[in-house]
Specification:
Elements (H helix, E strand, L loop, with lengths): L2 H16 L2 E6 L2 E3 L7 E2 L4 E2 L6 E3 L1 H18 L1 E8 L5 H10 L3 E5 L6 H12 L6 E5 L10 H9 L3 E11 L2 E8 L2 E8 L2 E5 L11 H7 L4 E4 L30 H10 L5
Parallel strand pairs: 1-6, 1-8, 6-7, 7-13, 8-12, 9-12
Antiparallel strand pairs: 2-5, 3-4, 9-10, 10-11
Helix pairs in contact: 3-6, 4-5
């Protein structure tokens, strides 16, 4: 028997396993896209009464799925992290059902983007993640702030609005949409990436994934920061859109009058 050859093969397998990528995916809970928007407490707080909540689509469909795809193709571990109360556990379990390996919830109801980013960065700073994924924005606030803040707090490169991500020899090629074209970036980990449409395709958790999610670890930890820097003074719902007025193409005088007196654009 070639014991030396077998020993070297075993060492190669161990080194390869230890070399596997480590991904962190930040997920958030948002109102369902069909939810009716209203506010309470003198218009300072979103009215969640009777609202169904979902995992933010940009986090789920693109960031999470691409991280899982990479772990499946090249080996690695996918951890999902959420900043929020225990009621968020249902969307965390969905992320585990889709294919994440383990999860962390920072037990605080975040009140602004910095509070969210600081808690994520505080958790990630000593964990050696190769990529930290986020959706490009949440569909309720549309701020696109957290990713850049996490990158700054961890002093890592940040690539936003990624529509394609490929890996070769531990180096990453990222494609992102820009005004009038696309930009292709080469980067080595660790770095932070925000995911846009095109990065992956939505996955529906199957029954096996749902059953396995029940036994996957979900660690709950205390927040590092629990005081927001920004407080919403008031939310305002836009006025309802009015119907379209049609003008006879032969009646330019009427069109000019409407643009001047009603639309007030001329």
């Amino acid at each position: 028997m070639d014991l030396i050859g077998e020993r070297n093969d075993l060492i190669d397998v161990i080194l390869k396993k230890n070399d596997q990528m480590n991904y962190l995916v930040c997920i958030s809970k948002t109102p369902d896209t069909t939810a009716k928007i209203s506010f309470k407490s003198d218009d300072t707080e979103y009215n969640a009464d009777g609202i169904s909540f979902i995992m933010n689509p940009y986090d789920e469909w693109y960031a999470l799925v691409r991280a899982i795809e990479l772990s499946e193709s090249t080996g690695g571990n996918v951890t999902v992290i959420n900043v929020g109360p225990a009621s968020n556990d249902i969307i965390i379990r969905k992320a585990l059902a889709i294919g994440a390996n383990n999860a962390v919830r920072i037990d605080v109801a975040s009140a602004d983007a910095y509070m969210t980013a600081a808690n994520i960065a505080g958790y990630a700073k000593d964990k050696s993640f190769d990529i930290i994924f986020l959706g490009k924005e949440t569909i309720d606030f549309n701020g696109s702030e957290v990713g850049a803040m996490v990158a700054e707090l961890l002093e890592l490169p940040f690539i936003s609005y990624a529509s394609k991500l490929e890996v070769s020899d531990d180096k990453f090629t990222v494609t992102r949409d820009i005004e009038g074209g696309v930009e292709i970036c080469n980067v080595e980990g660790p770095f932070v990436l925000s995911a846009a449409k095109g990065l992956a395709e939505q996955r529906i958790p199957n029954m096996k994934g749902i059953m396995m999610a029940k036994s996957k670890p979900l660690e709950v930890i205390n927040p590092i920061i629990n005081t927001p820097r920004v407080i919403a003074a008031k939310f305002i719902i836009p006025k309802a859109k009015t119907g379209v007025k049609l003008c006879d193409p032969e009646n330019m005088d009427e069109l000019v009058r409407l643009l001047h007196e009603e639309a007030k654009v001329i």
